[in-house]
Amino acid sequence: MSDTGAAVEAEGAVSGAEAPVAGLRAERVSRRADGRLILDGVALAPETGSTVGVLGPNGSGKSTLLRLLAGLLTPTSGVVTLDGTPLGDLPRRTVARRLAVVEQQSDTQIELTVEDVVRLGRVPHRRAWTPASADDERAVRAALERTGLDARAGQPWHTLSGGERQRVQIARALAQEPRELLLDEPTNHLDIHHQLDLLALITGLPVTTVVALHDLNLAAMYCDRVVVLSAGRVVAAGTPGDVLTAELMADVYGVRAAVSSEGPEGRPHVRFLGTLV
């Protein structure tokens, strides 16, 4: 059993029915599509306020897991819960107020400003066709300031670079005032400066974050814990220092690697030496 799954069971054994289960959890979720098993019994229980990285090769199930956690897909078996209640039993508006999702890339054909996009984060908090409230405007301003976009509020969305657009999507998510933030490969197509800038921003937020990443060294630098998927199953989970080993690189990624503690604060650094024949 992965240590993530063990943690879920251990916590349940201690608390039992006496205390509600807090936060977002995946309890042995599986997902089939077109007759193929994409996820197989995955458990995930992020600690409140932590950043959990979901790692794995292409096709390992990372994006599917994020979509299950967001309630955009339904598990074939198992359950995703929010404070102990299955997502499917909660009103969509309730889920949207708690969970914010940032996809790999976003685009629009509509002429929107940066502020317009960030205001979309307030939709779950407003009734249809009602004007923005003072709370809405406060949340939008706070999100723009937190992401350093307040000076660009009136700039057209389509004039921004890829890194700037991702930052706007983070601001939109923050305007939701979520307690959980889910991000699917947010650093894709960004240069290293924007990758570091974006992850520093994300991990500094006062929310519980689950982020799918390809870059193992970025995960080692910024994540409190990592979960590694392979062929839809959790094959390792724990701190980056415990999980990111040369043996894991060989078994999961099929590469030779040297792992040292050269990273910031003694975190692991992976140096790739070549592929395995």
From TrEMBL:
Cross-referenced SMART domains: AAA
Keywords, A to Z, come to: ATP-binding, Nucleotide-binding, Transport
Q: Which Pfam families match?
A: ABC_tran (PF00005)
CDD domains recorded for this chain?
Answer: ABC_Iron-Siderophores_B12_Hemin
Q: Where is the ABC transporter domain?
A: 24-256
What Gene Ontology molecular function terms does this protein carry?
ATP binding; ATP hydrolysis activity
Q: Which SUPFAM superfamilies match?
A: P-loop containing nucleoside triphosphate hydrolases
Q: Give the classification, highest ranks.
A: Bacteria, Bacillati, Actinomycetota, Actinomycetes, Kitasatosporales
According to UniProt, the name of this protein is Iron complex transport system ATP-binding protein
Q: Could you tell me which species this protein originates from?
A: Streptomyces luteogriseus
